[in-house]
Design the sequence.
């Protein structure tokens, strides 16, 4: 790997091998076989699980079918989080494949949003993209795009077409030559140990003195507990797309290369696994 | 033929170790060694220290600083022991008036020396007793004379013009006579003086002569060299008060000609004669009469010259042109308001800015070459002490209140007055590090003589540091008496101000006062009364309303040092901001798109801005990046390796992009027809992508379509012209037919989208992506577009060679005229404007954005070229020459052929990518010469033209040129500052030991200097510095072969071989003159492993016969082919050319890539041509490709080394016969 463009490909084509099993209490007409699938890390659960739904619906009675939802080790999985983020946050230390339980009953209203159709995912995705561009370019880039460009972003994600998506998305990743980066970096920091769903603040990619901010600078500023003291023991992992970038990595570069398709850097802080 | 049995390969050793043997061989072979000289200028110096674009400025203390367009800090001008009150800069040099009232010129250092040839002729007459001897007839000329024979010119009587010159070597005999080597010591013969001389001695040759030549070299570079004073001791001293340099766009004859104007204290205007690049000092001052007393002067790059008069008006020089750079007459322009006269003007190419007595800034409306006076004044915002117009009509000024340098933002060709003033807040280098030491004071004192020496670096910077400290005297600092008595010179006051070395200060001051010379010295300028010019300066404040800020001393006039008041101890400002007195932007090229870092304060001691350098961007080697790459690979392995059998969640589908384009239809009459296009992209089971392009059209109300598999496309070429955004799509079939699929889009954006998408699809289907391999073949079209092809091993196979119409070419961003590569990934290019560029390792750029482009290593690139049109006239008995022609005549304004009408107003830049950057001007440099007004005469159209009128000439024409500029981006970085005409990098054959040595790279500058680049390696492809290789005439082409054989072509069309070039001696030792083929002038040479090919001006390709290791210069030229525009010989001795015309089934194809077939070790001339991509190709370099199918390589090596006849795979043909040229011949 020699060029940064290859990072984009690796990020896009990240896959999580997943084993879907039907929840034991669900009533079936015959035994439900587990279903194995490679899930795109950058996509959304409800967008890529049509096959799973069909598979399990075959063994169920029509009247028992209501909205599908997923759960991992007792935690309902938020469909509006990218799959890679869910995995990193909840299951990165467990063995592969990722075992997800499929539910059709008892929708956890307080934990999950309903996902009535693909339109809901599209609306959510596009609102994230717009929010990110508001932070990066005061919405100038996204507002200058045509409707068909917005559609191409979404269709690229939905159809897993890297070129189609990036043909448009690259415009969202540009910034004026006289600046050293975006206005603010769109990021969200997730921790399993806190109640708060995520941390999101305004943070610039370049310091007042012209120095590039790094991942470490960001964490020290907005989530100091995540960073180990100089000489202290490393307690947490800072994970994006299943890897732990060094804290010296410039934030601007991360934002350009390791953002999810929604243009946000989704950063998971998870406790260091104890061996 | 005998040489064919000699081994075709030789080792490096045999070449580098036997120069003496060569000499013997060459003598026996009647070989002329035309020039022997110790390697000229062989001391490698550091890479050009002078960034090619800097702003010059003088602070209130007379210190000269420069600020680079890429920099953030003012750098103290090295070697300036003197203080200056004026500077006027160009890109190559800076003129200044120092506070000793003397004029100095600072010629920027360069790897190419400034050298001038002196010559003298030795004449002899034959007599029956002594043969040719020095006994002359009484009526004869001097034995030693100039070329005319009239001037006596003994060798020892030729002196250096000033002490800034040195001799390069001793006198030697010139043995080159009009491109032909002479015999017997360079003598040329004639019947009598003065007559026509010939090389050959005939029975009636009674006299002979030969030319002796000697080079002198300008040595005072990167230092202030004093121009001898004009003072006539009999008259009152009248020192210079202001000075301005410009005029470099008036004409380029001689090269680098400048107009240097000055104003003396008595208000006279002076012009410096004969200033040019080869004569940087000029020759003498001549007085130019003025109708009033001048106080200040400004000379623009072109024909504008304005002078400020004492009375407040401006004088405008009229009639400045190529033939009369001094101009002819003056006009007067009144100031905007009579009560506030003009005190300062500055002019550019088409602008005039002025300052009036009340410090208001004015812009003159309507100024141009035809109306240098302009029409009216417009008041601008801001109060300025002075303004200065630099390159591109950019403007700088010095603020009245804060003495800061301001840059006028938003100055463009369409809005010359700009938008706002923006203060440059860059700090001085010295503000960052105070490292002054007292010892420097002593050395500063050593420089008080009138001699400016070259070794001032050590003292100059610290000197300033100390003086800065003196700006801020603390309350506890003792103020010795000296500083009150003689504080004119800051150095004095600093010595005292620091309070550390009072003894030294006394010593310094004493030294200065004890040695009064005829000229005022900086240190001696202690009493204002002694300096008449100070009086004038002191009047300044009276003229200016005294509303300047209280923090300034009242006497801040236009010049700096002369009026520094006694009160140097006054707090000039406790902050660190430098206070400026003068600024000059004549050498500062600020491009419209450039991002300057002058306007933000850099904190603390952070390093100066990283200048773009190619030696591996730190970001790419940073640990974090490596770690991300590595972790992603590991992640993919961890999460996918054992699960590949899992089903994909999202099935891959077909993706279709559709659109509307125009298509140049296949049937006659050919025209653009509207078509619908669809690109269907689908993914195979193996993940490979393939695509089909459908073009739907309607003919005779019938719907039809054609389709193209993108994996069969060989190249996509943008075809930009004035009106259409179009591109051509070739397959190998269509290459053979010379008939591409030609499509046009409605907008540039649309075309770029399609080109990028189609290119991406082609590359994906061929699995080509990322940077080209080091072996890649590079080529350039006549539009300057760059293409690169990955060579397959079959390409140079001895059997079943891959047809070159099947090569896949992909485009790289950028715009070049020449590109040369070698097998280690070093690639250099030369633009149309002769700028040298080095490949950065990126890919994409230009119209390739996003995925088709690498993230880093893409930079802005620009190029400039000229568009030419012709003005044609016919003579008639009534009105003489006029634009009224015969009915059958050509257009009165036409292209070169005369067939197409091209008017000044109607001619557009070559495509929409180009924009005009100059006005139309007459081109005097056309072949055949012109008269004073640029006309060329002929008996009738079309004919051969000459530059003078005869009785038989009834028509005349002249060429007009207009510059246009293109800005694009690509993986290229400029190699400043020397412009190049040709470049060649050593090809690396498979057998070459790749380790160790740096990569040999030779070049010819645009002025014809031969250069050798030092320090080129894979990691530093730009190299470090140039080594100049002396020649007796300008060169045009150079090529270095795999064994360090360097061949070159001179402007007179003859070839030269450079002896003893080796890694240890990169510049070799001497040139061996090789005559060109009979009656032909060579223009290009290319050397491969052993083969040497040359190309002449008539398109003939020649092979050098008889080249052997012991006799590398060969014996004769053998004709190979005609119709050739460019040749490239590679490390396998493969021969590729650009052919002029190649037949196809649909049309002729100009500029076609052709590959020589049947090239064998024992048959290096090959047999025929294989035709590849064509239709406007200009340049190819195959010199990086040493890949050959393994089998054939071993075969080659075997025959090569053993010298035994191998098994020819094809019947060998008689070599050496010109008729064998079955080349791309037609017509």
Sequence:
């Amino acid at each position: 790997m020699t060029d940064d463009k290859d990072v984009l490909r690796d990020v896009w084509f990240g896959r999580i091998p997943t084993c879907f099993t039907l929840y034991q209490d669900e009533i079936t007409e015959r035994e439900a076989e587990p279903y194995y699938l490679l899930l795109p890390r950058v996509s959304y659960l409800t967008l890529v699980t049509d096959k799973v739904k069909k598979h399990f619906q075959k063994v169920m009675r029509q009247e028992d079918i209501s909205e599908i939802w997923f759960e991992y080790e007792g935690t309902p999985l938020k469909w509006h989080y990218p799959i890679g983020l869910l995995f990193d946050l909840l299951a990165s230390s467990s063995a592969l494949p990722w075992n997800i339980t499929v539910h059709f009953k008892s929708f956890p209203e307080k934990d999950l949003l309903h996902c009535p159709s693909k339109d809901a995912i599209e609306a959510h995705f596009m609102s994230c993209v717009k929010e990110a561009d508001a932070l990066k370019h005061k919405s100038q880039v996204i507002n200058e795009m045509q409707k068909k460009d917005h559609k191409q972003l979404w269709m690229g994600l939905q159809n897993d077409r890297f070129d189609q998506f990036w043909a448009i998305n690259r415009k969202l990743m540009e910034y004026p030559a006289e600046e050293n980066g975006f206005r603010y970096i769109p990021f969200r920091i997730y921790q399993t140990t806190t109640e708060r769903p995520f941390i999101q603040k305004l943070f610039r990619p370049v310091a007042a003195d012209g120095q590039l901010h790094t991942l470490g600078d960001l964490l020290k500023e907005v989530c100091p507990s995540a960073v180990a003291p100089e000489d202290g023991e490393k307690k947490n992992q800072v994970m994006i797309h299943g890897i732990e970038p060094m804290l010296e990595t410039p934030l601007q570069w991360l934002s350009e290369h390791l953002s999810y398709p929604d243009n946000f850097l989704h950063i998971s802080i998870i406790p260091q696994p104890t061996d | 033929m005998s040489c064919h049995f000699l081994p075709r390969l030789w080792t490096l050793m045999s070449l580098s170790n036997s120069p003496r043997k060569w000499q013997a061989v060459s003598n026996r072979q009647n070989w002329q060694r035309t020039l022997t000289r110790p390697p000229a200028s062989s001391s490698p110096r550091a890479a050009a220290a002078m960034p090619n674009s800097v702003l010059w400025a003088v602070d209130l203390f007379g210190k000269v600083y420069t600020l680079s367009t890429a920099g953030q800090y003012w750098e103290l001008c090295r070697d300036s022991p003197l203080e200056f009150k004026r500077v006027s800069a160009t890109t190559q040099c800076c003129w200044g008036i120092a506070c000793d009232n003397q004029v100095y010129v600072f010629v920027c250092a360069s790897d190419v020396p400034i050298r001038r040839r002196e010559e003298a002729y030795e004449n002899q007459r034959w007599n029956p007793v002594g043969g040719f001897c020095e006994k002359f007839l009484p009526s004869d000329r001097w034995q030693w004379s100039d070329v005319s024979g009239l001037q006596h010119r003994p060798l020892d009587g030729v002196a250096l013009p000033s002490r800034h010159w040195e001799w390069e070597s001793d006198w030697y005999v010139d043995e080159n006579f009009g491109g032909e080597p002479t015999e017997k010591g360079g003598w040329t013969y004639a019947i009598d003086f003065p007559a026509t001389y010939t090389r050959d001695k005939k029975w009636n040759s009674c006299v002979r002569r030969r030319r002796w030549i000697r080079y002198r070299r300008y040595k005072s570079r990167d230092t202030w060299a004093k121009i001898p004073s004009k003072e006539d001791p009999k008259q009152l001293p009248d020192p210079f008060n202001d000075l301005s340099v410009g005029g470099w766009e008036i004409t380029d004859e001689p090269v680098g000609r400048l107009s240097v104007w000055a104003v003396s204290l008595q208000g006279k205007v002076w012009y410096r004669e004969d200033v040019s690049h080869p004569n940087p000092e000029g020759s003498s001052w001549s007085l130019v009469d003025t109708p009033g007393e001048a106080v200040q002067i400004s000379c623009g790059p072109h024909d504008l010259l304005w002078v400020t008069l004492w009375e407040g008006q401006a004088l405008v020089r009229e009639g400045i042109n190529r033939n009369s750079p001094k101009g002819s007459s003056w006009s007067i322009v009144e100031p905007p308001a009579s009560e506030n006269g003009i005190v300062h003007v500055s002019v550019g190419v088409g602008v005039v800015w002025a300052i009036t007595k009340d410090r208001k800034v004015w812009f003159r409306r309507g100024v141009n070459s035809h109306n240098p006076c302009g029409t009216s004044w417009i008041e601008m915002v801001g109060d300025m002490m002075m303004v200065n117009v630099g390159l591109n009509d950019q403007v700088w000024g010095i603020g009245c209140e804060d003495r800061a340098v301001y840059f006028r933002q938003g100055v463009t060709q369409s809005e010359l007055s700009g938008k706002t003033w923006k203060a440059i807040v860059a700090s001085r280098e010295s503000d960052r590090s105070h490292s002054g030491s007292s010892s420097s004071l002593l050395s500063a004192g050593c420089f008080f003589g009138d001699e400016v020496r070259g070794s001032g670096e050590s003292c100059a910077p610290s000197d300033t540091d100390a003086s800065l400290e003196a700006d801020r005297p603390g309350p506890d600092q003792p103020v010795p008496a000296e500083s009150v008595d003689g504080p004119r010179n800051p150095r004095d006051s600093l010595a005292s101000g620091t309070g550390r070395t009072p003894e030294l200060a006394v010593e310094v001051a004493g030294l200065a006062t004890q040695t009064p010379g005829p000229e005022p010295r900086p240190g001696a300028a202690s009493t204002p009364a002694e300096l008449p010019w100070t009086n004038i300066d002191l009047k300044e404040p009276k003229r200016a309303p005294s509303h300047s800020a209280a923090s300034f001393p009242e006497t801040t006039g236009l010049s700096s040092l002369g009026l520094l008041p006694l009160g140097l101890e006054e707090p000039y400002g406790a902050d660190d901001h430098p206070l400026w007195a003068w600024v000059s932007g004549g050498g500062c090229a600020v491009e419209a798109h450039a991002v300057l870092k002058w306007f933000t304060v850099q904190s603390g001691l952070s390093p100066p801005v990283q200048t773009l350098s190619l030696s591996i961007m730190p970001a790419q080697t940073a640990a974090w990046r490596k770690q991300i790459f590595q972790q992603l690979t590991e992640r993919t392995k961890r999460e996918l390796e054992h699960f590949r059998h899992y089903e994909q969640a999202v099935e891959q589908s077909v993706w279709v992009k559709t659109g509307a384009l125009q298509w140049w239809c296949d049937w006659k009459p050919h025209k653009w027809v509207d078509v619908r296009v669809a690109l269907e992209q689908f993914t195979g089971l193996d993940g490979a992508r393939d695509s089909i392009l459908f073009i739907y059209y309607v003919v005779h109300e019938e719907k039809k379509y054609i389709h193209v598999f993108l994996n069969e496309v060989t190249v996509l070429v943008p075809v930009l012209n004035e009106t259409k955004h179009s591109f051509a799509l070739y397959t190998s079939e269509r290459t053979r037919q010379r008939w591409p699929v030609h499509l046009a889009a409605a907008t540039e954006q649309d075309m770029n989208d399609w080109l990028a998408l189609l290119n991406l699809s082609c590359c994906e289907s061929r699995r080509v992506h990322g940077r080209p391999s080091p072996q890649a073949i590079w080529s350039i079209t006549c539009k300057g577009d760059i293409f690169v092809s990955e060579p397959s091993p079959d390409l140079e196979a001895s059997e079943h060679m891959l047809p070159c119409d099947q090569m896949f070419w992909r485009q790289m961003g950028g715009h070049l005229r020449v590109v040369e590569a070698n097998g280690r990934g070093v690639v250099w290019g030369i633009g149309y404007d002769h700028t040298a560029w080095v490949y950065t390792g990126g890919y994409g750029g230009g119209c390739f954005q996003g995925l088709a482009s690498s993230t880093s290593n893409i930079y802005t690139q620009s190029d400039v070229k000229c568009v030419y049109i012709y003005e044609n006239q016919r003579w008639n008995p009534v009105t003489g020459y006029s634009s009224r022609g015969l009915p059958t005549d050509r257009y009165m304004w036409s292209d070169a052929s005369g067939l197409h009408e091209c008017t000044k107003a109607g001619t557009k830049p070559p495509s929409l990518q180009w924009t005009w950057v100059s006005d139309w001007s007459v081109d005097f440099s056309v072949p055949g010469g012109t008269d004073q007004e640029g006309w060329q005469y002929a008996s009738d159209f079309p004919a051969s033209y000459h530059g003078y009128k005869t009785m038989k000439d009834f028509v005349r024409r002249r060429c007009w040129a207009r510059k246009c500029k293109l800005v694009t981006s690509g993986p290229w970085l400029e190699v400043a500052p020397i412009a190049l005409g040709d470049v060649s990098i050593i090809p690396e054959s498979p057998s070459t030991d790749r380790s160790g040595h740096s990569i040999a790279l030779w070049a010819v500058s645009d002025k014809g200097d031969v250069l050798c680049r030092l320090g080129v390696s894979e990691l530093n492809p730009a190299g470090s510095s140039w080594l100049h290789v002396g020649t007796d005439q300008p060169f045009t082409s150079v090529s270095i072969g795999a064994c360090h054989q360097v061949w070159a072509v001179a402007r007179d069309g003859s070839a030269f071989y450079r002896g003893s070039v080796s890694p240890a001696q990169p510049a070799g030792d001497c040139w061996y003159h090789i005559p060109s083929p009979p009656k032909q002038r060579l223009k290009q040479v290319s050397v491969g492993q052993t083969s040497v090919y040359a190309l002449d001006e008539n398109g003939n390709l020649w092979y050098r016969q008889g080249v052997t290791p012991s006799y590398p210069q060969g014996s004769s030229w053998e004709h190979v082919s005609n119709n050739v525009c460019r040749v490239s010989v590679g490390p396998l001795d493969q021969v590729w050319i650009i052919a002029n015309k190649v037949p196809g089934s649909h049309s002729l194809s100009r500029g076609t890539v052709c590959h020589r077939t049947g090239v064998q070790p024992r048959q290096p001339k090959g047999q025929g041509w294989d035709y590849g991509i064509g239709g406007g190709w200009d340049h190819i370099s195959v010199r990086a490709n040493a890949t050959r199918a393994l089998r054939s390589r071993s075969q080659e090596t075997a025959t090569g080394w053993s010298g035994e006849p191998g098994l020819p795979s094809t019947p060998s043909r008689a070599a050496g016969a010109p008729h064998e040229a079955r080349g791309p011949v037609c017509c």
